[in-house]
Queue: 3 jobs
Job 1
Amino acid sequence: MTSHFSKIAVLTALLLASFSYGQEAKKDKKKTAPIDLTHWKITIPEANPNNPGSPIEIGYPEIMEYANNPVLKKWMYNDEKDNSIVFYAYPSGTTTANSHFSRSELRETIEPGNNNVNWTFAQGGTFKATYAIEVVSKEKDCKYSKIIIAQIHGRLTNAQRDLISQKDNNAPPILKISWDNGKIRVKTKVLKDLKVSDTAILDVKAWTDDDGINFKEKVDFEKFTLEVKVSDGRMEVILNGNETLVYNDINIKKWGIFENYFKAGNYFQSNESDSFAKVKIYALEVSH
C-alpha cells in the first residue's frame, strides 16, 4: 500500500505534524512488498563486514528490494501462500549493542535514513499489526523459545546523551510484547526510585522491568492482531480487539522525557544451540 501522509496544524505551543503510514497486505501485486517498508529499517543477525562486531542494518530504499537481496532474503522473505512477510532468526552470534540475542526486526524511521527523528508520548502514536508464529523451537525445559515481536524503544536526544556522558543514544524499551509459550505477554519499565532526579532518570540503570502480565487468550500458532495506543501519560495494549491493558501510572507519566520509536518482527530470546523461530507479519500500520 502506498505510503500516505496527512499534516494537520495542532494548536499547542509547537506546531506538530500529524501523519500516518499504513501497511496492509496486498493480494494482487506479487512483485511488491506485502507491507509498506518506506518508514522502516531492519536489523538482521548477520555480521556487517564494514563494521565488525555489529549486525547488518538495511533501510529505505534498499529494504524495498528485500526479496531480491541475497543477504537480506535469508532473514526476511515473502510467503506467497498467505501473503505474509516471514522474519527468521536464530542465535547466530551477531547481536546489537546492549543485547545478547539475535534479531530480524524492523525499526520505525519517521524520516527514512535518520534515527534522530522520533516521537514523544506527548505527540502520541498508534501501532497495529497482524501476526502469526509460523514455527519456533523448544528449549531444554520443553517450553517454546520466547520471542519479542513488538516494542516501543526509548531513545536519548543528542543533548540528553551528552548530559549524562553516554557513548550512544540508547534508552530502555518502555514496552516489550512477547509470544511466550502460546500466550502474548506484556512487560514495561518502572523506576527503581520515583524521586529520581531529572538527570539520573535518563540513565538505563534508573529503570527496571515490571512483573509483566499475560493476556488471557492463548493465540498459539493462529493469526492475531496487536494494537498499541500511546498518548501523554498513557499507554494501551489491545489483543484481537477484545482484551486491553492500560498503563497510566506515575512511571508512564515520567517516561515522557524520552523520545521513542516502534519496533516489530522477531527479536529471538534464546541462545540455545539449534533454536530458531519464524514470525509472520500480515499487516502493519503506524500513525502519529
Note: The chain has two helices and 17 strands.
Job 2
Amino acid sequence: MDLLTAVNNILPWMEENTVTTVDTKHPTVALILNKIDLNREKILSEGYWFNTENKKFFLTPAGEVMKPTNLIAMYPKDKALNYEVRGDRVYDLGNSTYQIAAPFEASIRVDLTFEELPESAARTVMWRAGIDAYVPDYGVAAAVQVLMQREAEAFALLQREHLRKVNYSAMRTPPGMKYLNSLRT
C-alpha cells in the first residue's frame, strides 16, 4: 500500500475530499501523515517477522561498533553482553565504554518506510492513524466504532501472519521437549 492510498482511505472519514498528492500544506493531510508515522513507529518497535533480522556487528579500527542507519532496537545473541545503542555507536553498559571487545551477533529491529510494510501491517497502521486523527476533532462517534473494527481486523490478520512466519511451536519449549522425551521412553 502506498502513502497516498492510506491518506485517501482516511480523508472521507474526516469529511474531506480525497487528494491526488500527499501535500503537507493541506492541514488534514499533514495531520494524517503525522499519525501514520507515529503508528508505523509503534508497530515496528513491537517487532514482527518483516522487520526483525539477525546481524553480525564488526569493529571499526578504533574498536567501536557503528549503528546501522535503520536500526530501531538491538538484542545481542549472547545474553552476557550488555550492549545498547547510544547515538551512532554501540555502548557497552557493563564496562561503561564505547570500546567493544569483539565482533558479536544480535537480533535487530529495523525501521521501514510505510510503503515497505506488508499489507496487513500497513492496514493496521492506516486504521490506527485514522482513529488517532478522527477522535481529537470529532470525538468518539459511530464512525470511530467502524474504524476500530477495521483496525482490529487488520491487526488480527497481522498477528496471524506473524505466527505463521515465525513458526512458533510449543514442542520446542522446555516443557514440550520434556513431553517428547517422555514419549520415547
Note: The chain is about 45% helix and 15% strand.
Job 3
Amino acid sequence: MSLTTDAPVPAPARGLNALGDLSEHLLSVLERGGADMSKLGVPAQPEPEDGLWEDVNVPQARARRNIWIGSIREASHDRYLQLRLTDLDANQKPKTLQNWLSSLVEAKRVGAEPECLQMIVPGNIGSGKTTAVVALGTEASEKGLLVRFVKHATYLNWLRPDSAPSGKSSYSVRKDHVEADLLVLDELCGDMTGLATDFVCSKTTDLVESRLAAGRATIYTTNLKSRRRPGSQEISIVDILGERLVSRLGDRAASARIEGPDRRKPARPLDW
C-alpha cells in the first residue's frame, strides 16, 4: 500500500531556476516596465564611479532606457524614438541641444549641479520642437541619465484623483517626475487660453520649484511667448501662470527658439 502525505514540496536549491523556463522572460518584462530588479532577487550591479549607467548589459542601464521609452510610448510618440540630434536640421538647434546635454552629463559624472538647469524651447506650431526634445531625451537616456517625457496637460491630469496611469497614485506620479535626472515637459500651457486655475498653478509651480531646488534639469517646449508683446492680442505664459512662475522658469535657464514652417501642414490646403 502506498502512503500519501500533505507535506510541502521542498523549495528548489539556491541557484536553481524557481520559475522554470518562464523566469528569464518574466524578469525581462518586469525590467522593461522599470521594476526595481533588486527587490526581485536580481543581484544589484555595483554603482558606477561616475554615477552614470551607460552599458545596456547592466540591468539598471536597461531599466533607465526603458523608463524613457515607456514615457514616449505613453505619449504615442514612438516614431520619434529612432531620431538622434544628428538627424535634426539647423532650425531645430541641434548644436545648442547637444552642448546642453553634454553639460548635464558632465555635471552628473562629477556630482555637480549643471550651470544651466532649464532649457526653454519655444516656437510656432509644427516647427519641430517635440521632435528635437525627444531626440535629446533619447540620447540622454543612452548616456545613463534617467529621463522622462510628459506633456504638461497630461501631467496635471495624472495628479487628479483616480486619473493616474494604472497602478500609480498621484504621489508616485509627482515623485517620478520630480526625481528624474532630466524631465522633458512638452507643450507648456498647451491649449490653455486664460488664467489658470489654482490647481494648475500650484501643481506646475510645485514641479518647477521642486526640480530647481533639487538641481535637476528640465526642458520645456511651448507655442507661447513668455510675456505678451505691446499691442498684441496673443496670450502669453504670464497671462496663464502669472509673473512669479515665469520668473522661476527663467532661473538658471537658456532658450533655443525653433522657427520654421509648420511641418505637419498639408502641401495643399484641404477643402471639403
Note: Residues 1-5, 9-22 have pLDDT under 50 and may be disordered.
